[in-house]
Automatic annotation (TrEMBL):
Catalytic activity: 2 GTP = 3',3'-c-di-GMP + 2 diphosphate
Alphabetical list of PROSITE patterns matching this protein: GGDEF, HAMP
Short name of one Pfam family: GGDEF
Keyword hit for Membrane: yes
Record keywords: Coiled coil, Membrane, Transmembrane, Transmembrane helix
Domain GGDEF intervals: 280-415
Ranges in coiled-coil conformation: 340-367
Residue ranges of the TM segments: 20-37, 144-164
Domain HAMP: from-to ranges: 169-226
Membrane in keyword set: yes
Name the record gives this protein: diguanylate cyclase
InterPro entries, per database record: Diguanylate_Cyclase, GGDEF_dom, HAMP_dom, Nucleotide_cyclase, Rev_trsase/Diguanyl_cyclase
Length: 442
């Protein structure tokens, strides 16, 4: 670039005028900004509170009915508001639900609201806590401040009327061209060269500095955007993959693809609470594959895994998908949870599954050997005094009795107190195995 003597635009008069203009702008914009801040903050809090209050009735019902998915859905709807960064619900039972992130919120405000019970006489069922992101409020105030400054500047132009021609030719017109270019500029047009329509000059003034600086900024932004787009794409793909894997692993048994023990421990207390509140039965069927240790010892763990996968798939096909669910409790033990099911119905369901296992679980190996698998079941129905532990202990005791009495049968938890039926068939022979309890296999 050729060397030019820098030519200042403003004269002594302009410098004096600008001094007063700046002073006026500071005074008036400060006053205007303070007034706008007070009004904007009140309007902001009122709007957020109004949005939160619209969700309180649904949250109240969801907490009362112990519906975690509905609670999380309502929290997600609250987070759809750009002004809400983090949502927490503290229920009266001690459970806490949270969504969102408040780590990167530079200016925040906490809003707490009681969640009333579905019936007003029942008081509160929890507390809703919102962490508000006031960045949108700050942006609005800055925008209003800029507008106020521009309005004051328009008034100041009256004081500069005497030099308007010079400013229009050497300052205003070039700046307008630059502003129009920037306003219409889109992300895919950053490479377009910016040029001013100006008469030839010998000097090099501030406008030329701005234009050159803007062109350098365009080039730098283009390089940065290319690098960031690629980096964001890679990180997004990695994050999506990690989140999908984490969600699957947290609730699903990796081998059988049914729910795992962790999911059972988290979900079962809610099942019992819901059944107790509405006075409806819920049954658990504790099932165990007979002689599973001998399958592993005789045919190897790969075949044992195949037995577990096939068994889980068969049981899952026998359940009502919208109500019943199956979890792997550990090893070859599985738990079938049957909401809305009394003891007789649970016994019938367990007997149907037992017969289907006995008839369908036939395994033929490449070396010509084959074997079949049977299953033992312990069935228990929740009583009013039951916890998850006591209910599972009764079902496990029934399963143990089924094993002790020959396997391949269904035992009810209330056998010693009622005349509930016992479904029993002869245990099968597996390539010469005897039908006796052996080793550590149940």
């Amino acid at each position: 670039m050729s060397r030019f003597v820098q030519e200042p635009i403003a004269s002594v008069l302009l410098r004096q005028l600008f001094k007063w203009v700046i002073l006026c702008v500071v005074l008036f914009s400060t006053l205007q900004g303070w007034l706008n801040y007070r009004a904007g903050e009140q309007k902001f809090e009122t709007a957020v509170r109004s949005v939160a209050e619209t969700h309180l009735p649904l949250l109240s019902v969801a907490i009362w009915d112990i519906e975690p998915q509905t609670i999380e859905k309502q929290m997600g709807l609250l987070l759809n508001s750009p002004d809400v960064a983090w949502v927490a619900i503290y229920t009266s039972t001690g459970k806490v639900f949270t969504q969102g992130s408040k780590e990167n919120v530079s200016q925040s405000q906490t809003l707490r609201m009681d969640i009333p019970a579905p019936m007003a006489s029942n008081g509160s069922v929890g507390t809703l806590e919102l962490v508000l992101d006031k960045s949108s409020l700050r942006s609005e105030l800055i925008r209003n401040l800029i507008i106020a400054i521009l309005e004051i500047l328009v008034l100041a132009l009256v004081l500069l009327f005497a030099v308007a021609k010079v400013l229009k030719r050497d300052l205003e017109q070039p700046l307008h061209e630059l502003a129009d270019y920037v306003r219409k500029l889109e992300a895919n047009q950053l490479g377009a060269v910016f040029s001013l329509h100006r008469r030839k000059r010998r000097g090099y003034n501030e406008i030329d500095l701005v234009v050159d600086g803007f062109r350098e900024m365009q080039s730098s932004l283009q390089r940065h955007i290319r690098d960031q787009d690629q980096l964001v794409l890679e990180r997004t793909q990695q994050l999506e993959t990690a989140l999908a894997t984490l969600k699957t692993l947290s609730n699903t048994d990796a081998l059988t693809q049914v729910f795992n023990r962790q999911y059972f421990n988290e979900q079962m207390p809610a099942e019992l609470t819901r059944a107790l509140r509405y006075g409806r039965p819920v049954a658990v069927v504790f099932c165990d594959i007979d002689f599973f240790k001998q399958v592993n010892d005789t045919y190897g763990h790969a075949i044992g895994d195949r037995v577990l996968i096939t068994f889980a798939s068969l049981v899952r096909q026998s359940l009502y998908a919208d109500r019943d669910w199956l979890a792997r409790y550990g090893g070859e033990e599985f738990v079938i949870v049957l909401p809305e099911t009394d003891l007789n119905a649970a016994l019938e369901r367990a007997e149907q599954i037992r017969k289907k296992v006995e008839s369908d679980l036939q395994f033929f190996l490449e070396d010509g050997r084959h074997f079949s698998v049977t299953t033992s079941f312990g069935v228990a129905v929740m009583e009013s005094s039951d916890s998850v532990d006591t209910l599972m202990k009764r079902a496990d005791l029934c399963l143990y009795e089924a094993k002790q009495n020959g396997r391949n049968q269904v035992r009810p938890a209330l056998l010693r107190r009622t005349a509930a039926p016992v479904f029993q068939v002869h245990a099968p022979q597996v390539d010469g195995w005897q039908n006796s309890r052996g080793g550590s296999d149940r």
